[in-house]
Structures
1.
Amino acid sequence: MPDWKARFDPIARPKHIVRIAMTYGALNLVDLVEHNSRMHGERLAFAFAEKRISHSEYERRTARLATGLALAGVVPGDRCAIVANNCLEYVELLGASSRLGAIVVPINFRWSGSEVEHVLNETRPKVVFVSPLHLGLVTGAHFSGLACYVIGSRLAELPSMEELYVDGAHPAIFFDDAPLMMLFTAAVSGRPKGAVLSQRNLLTAANLTRLAWQLRPDDANVGVLPLFHVTGIDMLLAVQLAGGSTWLMPSFDAVEIVRSIGENAGSVMATFPPMLERVLDAAAARPDALATLRVVSGIDSFDIIRRLQADHPTTHFWSTYGQTETSGFVTLSPFDERPGSSGRPTLPGCVGIADDSGRLLTPGVVGEIVVRGPLVFQGYWSVHDNFAHQRPETWHRTGDLGKIDANGYLWYLGPAGSKSLIKSGGENVYPAEVERVLLEHPAIAEAVVFGVPDEQWGEAVKAVCVLRPGHELDPEALISFVGEHVARYKKPKLVEFARDLPRSAAGLIDRIGAKRTFGK
């Protein structure tokens, strides 16, 4: 266990100290921001709606925000949470936090109030930044003691984040080994956990992406993925490492994306289903609309990828594999090199296949995908019971099954039985989390959740439930009940009631058996 992790106890040490690792030759985000200011000063760094910020202005604004945060009492290791769609303030908070040694906690605005409450209770942020659109998620009675700042104009009850941009030069803390972001993921046991990523983690992953795609200062990232996703962060930082720009999109709008690519020479983009299909539909009437787009990455079907290549032959789809705990991509390759694979590992990330005991397997043998190296996260925040399982010896166990062929390509074969991940439209849905909510309904005695094929989203959530004696329940009413407690994308699309559920020899509910029986 990293020695700083033992100090991350927000109750015992409200002003805990993070170890500062002075690593010679190491790169941190402050270095990157200052380098871009010197080398690409007046070139565009970020754009949002009608606003434009150059690399030099980005350095000035992040330095001013860091000063204001320091005056507000933010010290190394403090958490700064944010609930907002993509915006300029999001990336400025990231840059300012890197100067202070603070930890940015992006919160998924699609979550329910109880899910947001869980994250805020777990992280106990020093400050919370929230857009007016999502105020209801953080300003309830449970959070009356939080220091909240609204993104945009001051509201009657909340000061504006802009008031924290203060002239002055707070000295930057130059280190790369302490945390920069905490992304909540892996709700295997029913509650999401905060994966802690250091500056080294994030910049190493971004540099891997930059090198694979040969990014240049004239590259422009179409920032459509939300910044609470590690892929959205990876894309943004990869282009920044090249001195390029990111056009931040507040939400997914296929027509607006096509317009932005055409007018702003967008060149790289990552998507989740069904985004790419809708972009292709929107571009159908304008064959040259995606002429500058040279790289698309993400998750999609063969049919959609083939359509992209047929309609826009200068745009190349890249196959990848990664997760939040690996700071982003650990494999990348052009789709056509090995269709169906997830690409090949690229140093400095080391990818292998292991059996249940952790022994590495030979090419072609199916096992669990494991990763080691500087891309692997620092651990889960305040979660000690599963820490050893997640980082056995030198390898991180992803919980996903796969194989590596004789040519080094990784083939992703789905989540391991213990993980049972459902991937719906690029979002992770963990059955245990949904099952926990289902069992809170007074009419439900037992429940099992699994993924079923879905033409639009890749997978849909299905629940099979056993009712308590004497109870009746409409499936739509149960779906609405779940939707009140978790994000909408996690609630079941399908509900089926059964007399009993398949069980293992130990008497436990057999999820695989249930999917085999009810998953048609």
Note: The mean pLDDT is 86.
2.
Amino acid sequence: MCGLVGFLGFSREDSLPPWQVLQAMTDAIVHRGPDSEGHWLDPAAQIALGHRRLSIVDLSPAGAQPMHSPSGRYVIAFNGEIYNHQDLREALGIAGVSDWRGHSDTETLIAGFDVWGIEETVRRCIGMFAIAVWDRGQRRLTLVRDRMGEKPLYYGWIGNGGNRTFVFGSEIKALQAHPAFDVKIDRAALARYMERMVVQGCDTIFSGLRKVPPGAIITLDEGAPEPRETLYWSINEAAENGLNNRFTGSQDEAVAELESILSDAVAQQMVADVPLGAFLSGGVDSSTIAALMQAQSATQVRTFAIGFREKEYNEAPHAKAVAEHLGTEHTEFYVDGKQARDLIPNLPEIYDEPFADSSALPTLLVSQMARQQVSVALSGDAGDELFCGYRRYTDARDFWRKVQAIPKPLRKISAETIQALPVGPLNALGRVAGIALLGDKLKKGAPLLASTNQGDLYRHLLRAWPGKNPVLARPNEDQADWTRQEKIVPGFAPMERFMLSDMANYLTDDILTKVDRASMAVSLETRVPLLDHRVVEFAWRLPLGWKLREENEQITAKWVLRQVLYKHVPPEIINRPKMGFAVPLADWLRGDLRDWAEDLLDERRLRADGFFDARQIRQLWSQHLSGQRNWQAQLWAVLMFQAWQNRWNTGQNETVRTMMMAR
């Protein structure tokens, strides 16, 4: 696991020498690769590649990057792991490649480029990766991202005139280290961030900077004005192929096949030349991964769990029960509020963009704990999206069943009436009736009531605000649909469409971003066996009824995955209500975080920045502090943007100072 940077186009203006710029860019992501660094520049082609290395496979200098292909045609900077690279080596051996310098997957990958070409090699790969490769013959830059978007890769044009440069890298902070970096905040991206708490899709918070889409290849020829984008794999196509090629065996055969594919994925991802372990929450997904790891290991697998003193947030006892049954070497760490809160100032630096999923805090904590013992940790992420695990899927369906019988005009009038009523009296009425926060719930439900179909209802359910976002300084700012436009495949049930949407959006933009940045901030590599594309493609072949089992008024989510787990862990240890990976944020904002938040939400400061309606935010803050409303999620989004903006402004100034001193 590593980090990569680079740029195409050297400045013709009076500036720093290219090698010094490249050094500054690689220095910015030293946390992604603390073991070594490498640089390569071609002044004639005006291309520079930089690399920071976290040594996982082949710790010798033979695995160092940037690396040249055997023919000398290609030069690569690579971040990730190719889990089947030994199989690829055997195929390359048949094709005539025999002179190997080491046993790294990077060497396998770039040898494949010589033999098969870039796209065909990538199609053969099982893994997670971000790749930058320069074709010295064609004078062409190619950027590649893995199928599900586990590894990040940013790119874009910066500067003007003779200072115009195409930059790319694993994190935005590396691009920021280039002296030509002078981009503006994208207000449309900010509006979408406020809807979903993360910067959505392939855009970034900065105008002109983009992310390479999952499963995409970006190519830029020397002298071309813009790059070209092609897809070598698509979650939409995988889902459609699964629909058209449904699994024809029995349920028992499906369970056996899933276990076989997933076991192979786990086995491949356990290959490392450094200590390895697994995150364990005690839920279905992480327990399945830990179980399959222990079943294939001759020694105790190391597992890690975070605990909270607040009982409603604490999953540690469940993780411990699973660990004891499996016989893993288990480590748990109980966190008090102060330890978690002390990390908050680091979040803007770690995430580079505003990121308001508060579970970033426990994710960072468990990564820190694991890194003390291992360099690689396997994760159970993606089980909910693949096997229908989120309760919101059934909530959306059940709510729609109740409201669709109500005539549309009546639903619309009812929604408007609820929106017009003040929350305070409704909450007071709820307290009399024994319904906590009745007003908040009705306000949240009003847009759902006005939905025209299940898809519309589900999109409303995911939004952070019950209606139009009221806190933006420009309320008419572009707030178009933030979802990637997944193809609506005829024959899919609504819940399958929800899952497809979440895989294309929430999983990549939130979950995988959260885990990558938190783990790499402490130089820990995370691997996600459930995102092996063979597992993903097989899961989409299974009928919905084998994922969500409903019998005798009992709902069992992730049924087929549970059957795999139950071969290793008895149901009574696993079966419990889903908790999620949360922190007591509402209370923290009213307590120890109050002064920190008050400073960021200062009315004069908000007005001066010009991004938010200061009056509206102060009103939300007052309501939250009094306990009248719970605005924790919405306020956290504002706070994370404000904290990020502080870091961005400070970092920008620091970069300028550093560059000037270097000159």
Note: The first helix runs from residue 18 to 27.
3.
Amino acid sequence: MCGITGFIDFSYQKTANALREAIGNMLNTLIHRGPDDEGIWMDAAQGIALGHRRLAIQDLSDRGRQPMVSPDGRYVLIFNGEIYNFLALRQELEGAGHSFHGSSDTEVMLHAFSRWGVLPAVQRFNGMFAFAVWDVKERALHLGRDRLGEKPLYYGMIERVFLFGSELKALKAYPEWCGEIDRDVLTLFLRHNYVPTPYSIYTHVKKLPPAMILTIRDDDSEIPEPIPYWNFPAIVGTGIANPCAGSDADAVEQLEAVLLQSTKGQMVADVPLGAFLSGGIDSSVIVALMQLHNSRPVKTFTIGFEEEGYNEAIHAKAVAEHLGTDHTELYVTADEARAVIPKLPILYDEPFADSSQIPTFLVAQMAKKHVTVCLSGDAGDELFGGYQRYVWGRNIWNTVGWIPQTLRRGIAGVMRGVYQQIWDQMSYRLKRLLPREVRKSVSGDKIHKLAGILDFETSEALYQHLMCPWKEPEVLMTNTSWPSSNVSEPLILSTLSEFIQRMMYVDTLTYLPDDILVKVDRASMGVSLETRVPFLDRRVVEFAWRIPLSMKVRHGQTKWILRQVLYKYVPKDLVERPKKGFAVPVGAWLRGPLREWVEALLDERRLREEGIFNPKPIRQKWTEHLSGIRNWQHYLWNILMFQAWHACEKK
């Protein structure tokens, strides 16, 4: 795991000293991603400079240093990530006459490029990666990113200089950087809590999409479009057309085998390794399978909170004790958690508003004291139907979708016309008449959310509503348009007949790479910790889409097949409980200890002077949140994270 950055100055005006100074400044911003070493490669005649910050994981010797040059001198590579099948590729290359000097996956990549070419070689890689490789012969720079977007890569053009880097802060360190906020993209952030690929918050900078390669040459008048080397829609279509044959037990056995293979491959490291353990289904499966491969107890990590309803540590401890792991837990006070908030704009580089970024950073910070690599259970929800909104959304749509839209809108208006507090009082009396399992789900806030759902004409529109805090960002901002994105493009949903499958599909393309994986990457790399995601092994992803939906969601229970794998190692009663997620009590904090911070960022005069947002709807939601009329924490956190980032941007 490392940080990479570089540029090509197509004006060819910079001296070697100027190139070195510029790339040095860019690398200094990425020390947290690679504290162990720094490497620079330049060709002043071609105007190119490549920089690498190293977090040593494989081959800790100098033979693993980057930038690394291929034996024939044609390719120069900087690389962030891990190639999990590098040993098999190395064996194949050795059989073809290639010889190696070290034991790193970086060297294997270079030989693969020399043997097969860049695109065919990348198609053989199974791993998480973002790389830049300079082809000296063709005078071409190739940028590549892994299939599901675990590792980040930004790029853009300023005048005649092409820039790229693992994080935006590296590009911003270039001497001639000039950044302008893209107001249209900001509307996407307000809708989704993150800036979706391929956009960045700046007008002239983009994210390289997952499973893409971008090639730029000195005769390109503008940046060309990236080309895919892996086709996720085709994987989905093939999987659904060729479902697993045999019984439920056969499918469970096949899934267990492919997960064992993936987990074992991701445990290869020359440094201490552990795992995050929340005590939920996904992380417990990964830890259980890791323990099978380890002769010693796996190191596991979790954090707990003092606030009632937000503490999962006791469940993680029970699973750890059953599996016999070397478990470390840390109970965090509210003050310690809130102390992370000022760091968030610097960690995430652009607006990012998933409040679970706070506990994610804290658990990564704790784990780094003991290990250099951690495996996680991320992506289990997207692949195996784990989010409760999948079931809830399907059930709601099946219940109300047949009602004419005009009638649904009328009912929604009546529901919204009653204050949340009054619904709460009414539902308190009604709860005694309802089944125990649904009592907690009845509240004024949820009734208002249900009213919003009734408004929509299609299930696709319902999906967007479920995922978006600010439903109408144009109310907050004037003179903006809403750019197209994977979430808003209906064509990607048209080939899937099942509502839950469509949601899983879109989440894998959007929410997973742009929220979940961004959150984990920035939080962990902020403390120089590598994270690995066994569920995102390409073999697991491809097999998961061959599993029928009836084996993922059964009788309202999510991740049915994954639970069957887990039950082989952990008793049901240790993991069967309502899913909480990795949450913190943001709503209460905003009304209490964070109130002064909120008031400063949402001050009406400040908002007007900055000229980005219309203060009225923001102030209205803040007033209602303070009064308890509504819980607007997700709306407010979204605006607050932009405001905090913007304040850092102006310094």
Note: The chain has 31 helices and 17 strands.
4.
Amino acid sequence: MKQQKSQDSFDRKRHIIGAILGPVCALLVYLTPIAGLADNPEAHKLLAIVTFVAFWWICEPVPIPVTSLIAPTLCVIFGVTSATDAFKAFANPMIFLFMGGFLIAKGMMVNGLDKRIAYGIMSMKWVGDSPRRIFLAIGLACMICSGWISNTATAAMMFPIALGLLEAIREMMAENGKIIDLKNYKYATGLMLMTAYACSIGGVLTPIGTPPNIIMIGFIRELAPEAPQITFFNWMIWGFIAMVLFFVVTYFILQWMFPADVKHIEGAREFIQEKKSSLGKWTRAQKNTLIAFIIAVVLWVLPGIFSAIQNISPNAINADFVKNYNAHFPEAIAAMIGGLLLFLLPVDLKKGKMTMSWKDGVSGIDWGTLLLFGGGLSIGGMVFSTGLSQWIGESLTDLLGGHPSEYLFLTLFAVTALLLSELTSNTAVANLMGPIAIATAVSLGFSPVPVCVVMALCTSLAFMLPVSTPPNAIVYASGYIPITKMIKAGVILDIIGVFVVSVPLVYFLVKAIMGV
């Protein structure tokens, strides 16, 4: 309770500060003569609006999606652009990629497919009642599920499982005459942190795993169409490697910091088996959901497979066939096919019952994220169309000393994205920093692809504070995580995640895959 009050107090102060500083700083920017923008009033006004939006996205005096709608609205009011141009980004195909992904994820949750996957992992024979293996299994279940569904939903699903296992430890200890306080029990802290961190780590696996991934891909397609474009298959190659590396580091660090003091957890195996048995047999709805999910995944990865085959044997697949496939089944359409199948595959034809109802489908779409994404694309497009991007790029180039190495450039933006994500929504950070990163990369003569990828990866490493990401907040509410322990673990993992994994991975692997 005390921890929650402290967090609420921090949030209130953040909201008040942002509400005041946003408009004040925007007004100062608007009234201050800026040499590079003297002949470009639209860009100057847009810079003031972006300043306002940045403060409100970071400090959240109103919900972030509301700010995302305020931004294009202000741009129309102050004559930066027309209403048609300001709001057309809200119909971008990338939004429908996310919408389809949300529908599939909701279908998995409504029909219990996500729990079946999680309990299936937890109940494997190799897990048993070993605390270390349970620790690993909890992390794997969280990571795999959050690669396809919301990290918040995954954390909410796995949180009570972790609590149940900790209660089993407490009861076992009590039977052996040892009374433990879970609030001061190292293993409890570690298991809670693993539950949260693995949910965030899993998001890097796919473009739809977490909003920053798809936002960065969208920015590249909209703002840098001449750059090599990232496919679903491309992302999964480096996303899988990054996910595994992040997870291995996290597992060993947390095991080192928060070791178990018992070799077996009496009743753990029975607890998991009971949870699994409660799911019963596979239902028709679960089977249909799995079919829809597999179809979407196959449609997503086929273009990458076709491309790989063509690189090995150019004549193995007809080039026109591949071109037509890509034209008729882009990622957004693949996602919508998977999502819409849930409304078409029947569970009981006599009763007219389908795999997912319209009510469940609508509630499963994170409309706020879609609005945030649309607002970010709108602002990003205007940053480029007004010429503000050129001014930002040139200004940052001068600030960086003319022409830094690309490795240093990637590191600077990776660290900036991480630090901002520790304080506010990683989705807002991606929207805010994406256009700036692309503009600066272009100004320096670098491809914008690596910097967008490294920033997306680093926004998933927000491990230091409860406010950093919803999974952190969920497990922090257990009362088993002292804030100092979360900060310490988060700092160690952030440093390793940025300097040992993210930047080297992007600089050497992503650049090689994309040919930039």
Note: The chain is about 75% helix and 0% strand.
